[in-house]
Amino acid sequence: EEKKSLNFIEQIIEDDLNNGYNKEQLKFRFPPEPNGFLHIGHASSICLNFGLGLKYNAPVNLRFDDTNPIKEEKAYVNAIKKDVEWLGFKWAKECYASDYFQQLYDWAVELIKQGSAYVDSQSSEAIAAQKGTPTEPGQSSPYRERPITENLELFEAMKNGETPPRAHVLRAKIDMSSPNMLMRDPVMYRCLHEPHHRTGNDWHIYPMYDWAHGESDFIEQVSHSFCTLEFQPHRELYNWFVEKVSHEGELLPKQREFARRNLSHTVVSKRKLLRLVEENIVNSWDDPRMPTISGLRRRGFTAASIRNFANDIGIGKRENMIDVSRLEFSAREDLNKTTPRVMAVLNPLKLIITNYPEDKTEQLTAENNPEDPESGSRQIPFSREIYIEQEDFREEANRKFFRLKLGKEVRLKNAYIIKAEKAIKDDNGNIIEVHCTYDEDSKSGSGTEASKRKVKGTLHWVSVPHAIPAEVRLYDRLFTVEDPTAHKEKDFLDFVNPKSLEVITAQVEPSLKTAKALEKFQFQRIGYFCVDQDSSESNLVFNRTVTLRDSWKN
Ligand code: ATP
Ligand code: MG
Ligand code: MG
Known about the structure:
Blueprint: H1 8-18, E1 28-30, H2 40-56, E2 60-64, H3 74-86, E3 94-96, H4 101-113, E4 117-120, H5 124-129, H6 148-159, E5 169-172, E6 187-191, E7 205-207, H7 209-220, E8 224-228, H8 235-245, E9 254-258, E10 261-263, H9 270-278, H10 293-299, H11 303-313, E11 320-322, H12 324-338, E12 341-342, E13 344-345, E14 348-353, E15 362-367, E16 377-382, E17 385-389, E18 393-394, E19 404-405, E20 409-412, E21 417-425, E22 431-438, E23 458-459, E24 462-463, E25 468-475, E26 501-508, E27 520-523, E28 527-531, E29 540-547
The structure holds adenosine-5'-triphosphate and magnesium ion (MG) (2 copies).
């Protein structure tokens, strides 16, 4: 295998291993907040953390950062677990920040006793107004010097829900003139009289991200805590909090940052994805148009294609926009190797082979996947009446049209050479059927001279009496512009593509009758399709994953 050079995150770990860390100390975590479904951006973080776990044979925890009961739900926890598993990763421990609420509280009490935290009874507006600016120091709260005993009493009352909702917060006492605004006495706890999906009504105070995250890493003895770049200024505070509760000789987790990955023509933010769901622009979090892991799965993307995509774009230090065509490329690459080929006609035009016997049905042999010799072959019925694509026939066309035109021949895939004789039209001049003749000796694989005859163009088809109608959902990009969030004066929903879903009825070969949800196929000459969860034997439903080629480029 080709040896790839180390990315900067791996370099940090290698440096640490060369400077005193033991391999056994390495531990990572993936820390989603259960306030929505995971999206393709999270896949980068998952592949980074779990990839490091595999590379260094180190444990990786799945940690739910569940400190905000207002937005979090058990259903999101379950969806997240399913998605990480489906991506192919195993976590060492399933952890919850909420499991540490008592420990965090006890530590907060310690901080108060040390004179490092105090209860502030001002409004959040007043606190914000005193923060100062990056170049001017902030103003101290009038409660900053509140006596320790009073702080302890108030904090306990807050915890027990005995104080009004917004009356007090607990703040760390750090430095109101720090050049880092986050160090100017950040809030550690706020009061919320909200039930939590795991701790119920046990708590009336909830820790803020900065207080909970580093301490959770410390409790779990995570060695390297990777987060996205916007947390870089938080690192100083992360370290301050961890140092406050740790003792000589203990392993302190390290926060390091990498760039968020953005995908073009969509949004990767749970908050924005939630709006798409709530405002019924999509049907659900797992709508196949969503950039969620569950949406991509339902659409037909394989776990391997998502992992490959994440690894190909890699880990960076600067935010950038990845074109969605790279994700589609990754899907094609994997699906080409793995999917059976079948025939389906999306826009049917009926052909009648006038010299083929009326009551005859032949079973023809078709290879399942030329990329996979193990995949074998299947039988497909052929008869006098077949469907081809409307786009595959023209009465007249130039030399470059290697499909069917009057007086010319094409091969029907796995079947015979046919020649178009006559186009039958309705009163409006629309072609409703085409009469053809076939060369009886030209059957594919029969070994005859005629079967080896070269004709330009091979068409896919299905036999009319054997075809099964199927609902096919054709997806297009969810947004019409590369970055729907780039226009500050507009709402990202202004750029929703009104044609992101087109539903048609296709005619598919009968072998597909028993296809089950999530089964994937290449519809020959068209694209990759996946059976939707709404599908049944009596009402087949397929999602188009991607077209065969990147039609957006040319
Ligand atoms: P969102 O804005 O979508 O809610 P988030 O960062 O708040 O994203 P978390 O649930 O906190 O979501 O994310 C879990 C982990 O995934 C974090 O470490 C976060 O940094 C990482 N992550 C989230 N979005 C991306 C992205 N677009 N690219 C890379 N990593 C991401
Ligand atoms: Mg977050
Ligand atoms: Mg978020």
